[in-house]
Design goal:
Blueprint (H helix, E strand, L loop, with lengths): L9 H20 L64 H7 L4 E12 L9 E8 L3 E8 L13 E9 L6 E3 L13 E4 L2 E3 L1
Parallel strand pairs: 3-5
Antiparallel strand pairs: 1-2, 1-4, 2-3, 4-5, 4-6, 6-7
């Protein structure tokens, strides 16, 4: 019998050595082999991990509510109009007629009704009321409602009028506040709320 060759081929030896190196490499890499941990290695048992700074404790107090925002200014404010001046009432010279004691004078003026009186039904019916003329004088009105329509007045109403002034001690009387039946004599009227009563 021939003698067997105890020597392995060289390539087989090189392959075996390479396999050993590969196994050692992967064993160390994946922790399959017991290798000594290096100090400072984060995975080693003796390694100290860096401490993270502690966050400050949270406050349990409720923060104050924010102050309310001011209301926005209106984008288109309405302009304020000045009050219309009150119309000046004409006294028609009646206070002077009273002061001078003059009578039977035709006048045109304005007045403010102060008091309503009962109708005078003795003879021709007359609507009677007292009105203030100017600042200090009050006069009696005798408005013939058999000739002219009744004027729907209340205290505080303002009238314009034309009539005949008769002097009297308490201030005087205005009459003939209606159309005249005598063509030679001009009549009178009372104007109230844009309507003429004559």
């Amino acid at each position: 019998m021939g003698q067997s060759n105890s020597k392995s081929p060289r390539w087989l030896q090189a392959a075996g050595a390479l396999l050993v190196l590969v196994l050692v490499y992967f064993g160390q890499r994946y922790g399959l082999l017991d290798s000594k941990p290096t100090p400072g290695d984060p995975g080693s048992p003796g390694a100290t991990r860096p401490t993270e700074p502690e966050s400050p404790p949270r406050s349990t107090r409720t923060p104050p509510a924010p102050a309310p925002l001011p209301a926005p200014a209106p984008s288109n404010p309405k302009p304020t109009l000045p009050e219309a001046p009150k119309p000046t009432l004409r006294d028609g010279g009646i206070p002077k007629l009273f002061a001078d004691g003059k009578s039977d004078v035709w006048v045109e003026a304005d007045g403010t009704v102060e008091k309503l009186l009962a109708d005078d039904i003795d003879g021709s019916r007359h609507q009677k009321f007292i009105a203030r003329i100017g600042r200090d004088l009050t006069v009696l009105f005798a408005h013939n409602i058999d000739v002219a329509p009744r004027v729907p007045l209340q205290p505080g109403d303002v009238i314009a009028f034309r009539g005949e002034y008769i002097w009297k001690e308490k201030g005087g009387t205005i009459h003939w506040t209606h159309k005249s039946n005598d063509p030679r004599k001009r009549g009178g009227w009372i104007k109230f709320l844009s309507k003429t009563y004559e």
